[in-house]
Write a structure and sequence with these properties.
seven-stranded mixed sheet, 20 helices, 29 strands, globular
Length: 747
């Protein structure tokens, strides 16, 4: 059966809703599918019918207002056409075997990021399983970075100035490097162990200039993440881009370099004089130059590196503003429209990327229109009639429906509209970059700090205030002077309510995220642990909510335990046992009235940096928290829902674990030492049980599994079926499904 890479990096069968995979010029692709194609054609026909008719509805007494609103509608349709063209076919790639003997330098760029963040990235980079050399490119010229490089065996390159920012930093390193291939990572992006093995094989094609992989993020509590824990869904504002749009661009040989999580061919870079300078988005312009030279690009849609997404609105919008300003520089001087070398399909793909930022103007018009109508009584149409509604409603519904379908379950219209509200003013401001030749490069802050959101949320607050205030004003004017027909009044009140609701949701979410305080993300990963207290016997339990600074412990512990006391223990990892000491900081209860403690909140006290490095190597640079918790990003589209199609995401197929317990397992009747692992404790009458083992089990034999919980020890006799192995930096771990074993004499 044909498989494809899912959003979280695992292999899943290709859904029948997408149609059968096809192949063109040696590249497999996922077509849009018959039902979706018909829907898109209907949408395009209805949109042309509506937009061709719309000028006949202009209000001659408010022609400027009428034309501006119509122009916003036309812009949306043109953008939709380019988007449809981009994602009509999505590539489905399987990584070719990496050739032996290639020379690879890994560049990790930094300017002002914390040492701890760089250390995690460098540990992951140095442990990749293809021969390479890891470099720190320090534009901050900091002694502590030089010491870090020396301690980890990395090369260190620094500059005395910061000319041309990140591009200048990379180009400076190229002068010292002789490798055939350059892997580029931002300071926060920790690569997976097999990153190079899964990306270098594409360079067997001598025309491939770079291979880009998704920029994924491990901090699932960031500003750009939206979580639905009960449904085990974690969607991010960039899901549509990295899961759909880049794959669509890849089909047209127009996927672009994103500045991190990519490998580039040195010869190709030399032909375009290195990374593009004179721009704040060196990645986009470098891609354009390489494509204009006739080189090919590859987008490998498997998540192979994990970084830090902005935790609050300030760095989030600063980053989008810089991207928008860079897009304007590319539009002005990158040769997208008239430069030689690009195919027509490549031009359309790049133009679609650039025009995205003009969307801010369109949204501003839509947010302002009901305010203008309600407060002035002036309509942008001559009459709100049943004829108008018969044209507008099908167009409006089909616009959103078609977007959901071509987004393949990543579109999430409501969430995207909320982020459109967040970004619109930044996008408007970014478009003025087309008139500026010099724009300063600003590094996105990647460490979590609480920052004021008031200045950044002023446009959204204004939208909320104006739309709310406009409603009673419109009612008053109509009541006093008969300014608006009843139908027009109701329609614009509804429109204003929608705008105000979007703005209110954005303001509320931003306020909640503004209280962000934690500097280190806590991973939702369970691990078995042996813990020793000052009194009593050692106990086996589970830790989760883990970072290299702390954890929560679940298991039996003495009632005399108090906050401030020290404990010691061993964590079981795929690489072996990791000793540690920790201080108990809090004693946690399920409820305030609960007299029995539920868990202990602890802070690590590491004896050596190498022990902490071993835990960091396990936590960072993998999709383990996605796989163990069966998280997904996709939802069913309306067509899938109507056809009964079920999205093949693991979390939809089986119930998830309610919690995990430590377990000791060995073949039934054997005297060999038991292996420690984890067993899921599910819910329902016949919950699924999963066993996590750090060693491969002999599945042909029934197993004895001793489950250790707070209530005691429970023995299971079961057969183990291997579900999957999950790669981590030290070694893989294995996930088994437990089936009750019936002894032959009991049959």
């Amino acid at each position: 059966m044909t498989t494809q890479i899912s959003a979280n990096g695992s292999s899943i069968p290709a859904s029948k809703a997408y149609g059968q995979l096809r192949e063109r010029q040696g590249v497999q692709y996922e077509p849009l599918g018959t039902a979706r194609t018909i829907l898109v054609i209907v949408y395009v026909v209805v949109a042309i019918w509506y937009l061709a008719w719309r000028p006949s509805t202009f209000n001659p007494q408010a022609m400027t207002f009428s034309v501006i609103l119509y122009a916003a509608e036309v812009f949306g349709f043109v953008s939709s056409l380019m988007h449809i063209m981009m994602v009509w076919r999505l590539t489905v790639r399987e990584a070719p075997v990496a050739p032996l003997g290639l020379t690879v330098d890994v560049f990790v760029t930094t300017y002002n990021e914390p040492v701890a963040m760089l250390r995690r990235t460098l540990i992951a980079a140095t442990r990749m399983d293809y021969p390479h050399s890891t470099w720190i490119l320090d534009d901050g010229n900091r002694p502590e970075m030089k010491a870090l490089a020396d301690s980890l065996g990395c090369r260190y390159v620094a500059r005395t100035d910061n000319r041309d920012a990140k591009a200048g930093n990379l180009n400076n390193a190229l002068r010292h490097s002789l490798a055939e291939f350059i892997a580029v990572f931002d300071a926060d992006h920790a690569p997976a162990r097999d990153f190079l093995r899964h990306s270098l094989g594409y360079f067997r094609d001598a025309n491939v200039a770079f291979v880009q992989t998704p920029q994924d993020f491990y901090n699932l509590d960031s500003y750009q993440h939206r979580r639905a824990p009960k449904r085990r869904l974690v969607w991010t504002e960039q899901s549509l881009f990295f899961r759909v749009i880049q794959r669509g661009k890849d089909y047209w040989n127009a996927a672009f370099f994103c500045g991190s999580c990519a490998v580039l061919r040195r010869r190709a870079l030399d032909e375009v004089n290195g990374f593009a300078t004179g721009t704040v988005t060196e990645d986009l312009e470098t891609s354009i130059r390489l494509h204009r030279k006739g080189f090919a690009s590859v987008y490998h849609a498997e998540s192979l590196a994990f970084g830090v997404a902005p935790s609050t609105v300030s760095p989030f919008l600063r980053q989008r503003l810089r991207w928008g300003q860079g897009a304007m520089q590319a539009l002005r001087s990158g040769g997208i429209l008239f430069g030689r070398g690009l195919t027509m399909k490549q031009r359309i793909n790049y133009l679609a990327t650039v025009l995205t930022y003009f969307d801010g103007w369109q949204k501003a018009v839509f947010y302002a229109a009901p305010v203008i109508v309600l407060t002035t009584g002036v309509l942008p149409i001559a009459e709100l009639s049943w004829t108008y509604l018969a044209h507008f409603i099908p167009f409006y519904i089909l616009t959103f429906w078609a977007f959901e379908e071509i987004g393949r379950g990543f579109g999430r219209t409501l969430e995207i509209e909320q982020y459109n509200m967040v970004r619109f003013a930044a996008f408007v401001w970014a478009t003025f970059g087309i008139f500026r030749r010099k724009i300063d490069f600003q590094v996105t802050k990647k460490h979590g700090t609480a920052q004021s959101s008031k200045r950044w949320m002023l446009p959204q607050g204004t939208v909320f205030f104006l739309n709310v205030v406009a409603i009673p004003i419109g009612i008053f004017i109509t009541w006093m002077r008969g300014g608006l027909p009843t139908g027009a009044l109701v329609a614009n009140i509804i429109w204003a309510c929608v705008n105000a609701s979007l703005a209110r949701a954005v303001l509320g979410f931003t306020a909640r995220m503004a209280s962000f305080r934690r500097n280190d993300y806590r991973f939702m990963i369970p691990l078995p642990v042996l813990l020793e207290f000052a009194e009593g016997e050692p106990v086996i339990g589970v830790i989760d909510d883990i970072s290299s600074h702390g954890f929560k412990f679940y298991g039996r512990f003495p009632e005399s335990v108090q906050a401030g006391s020290m404990i010691s223990g061993e964590i079981d990892l795929p690489s072996g046992k990791l000793p540690f000491k920790a201080e108990i900081r809090t004693i946690l209860h399920a409820e305030a009235s609960d007299r029995h403690p539920k868990a202990l909140g602890c802070r690590f006290e590491w004896a050596s940096a190498s022990d902490q490095d071993d835990l960091d190597a396990f936590l960072y640079g993998s999709n383990l928290q996605w796989r163990l918790n069966r998280l997904g990003e996709q939802v069913r589209t309306p067509l899938e829902w109507m056809s009964g199609e079920r999205r093949l995401v693991k979390g939809d197929l089986q119930p998830s674990a309610e919690f995990w317990a430590s377990a000791l397992s060995r073949p039934l009747g054997s005297q060999i030492p038991a292996q420690i692992g984890l067993v899921s404790i599910g819910h329902g009458e016949r919950p699924e049980r999963r066993l996590i083992s750090f060693r491969r089990l002999a599945v042909e034999e029934p197993m004895e599994v001793v489950v250790v919980t707070r209530s005691g020890m429970h023995t299971l006799e079961a057969r183990c079926d291997l579900l999957e192995s999950i790669g981590t930096a030290p070694a893989p771990l294995f996930v088994y499904k437990l089936e009750d074993h019936v002894r032959p004499e009991a049959r």
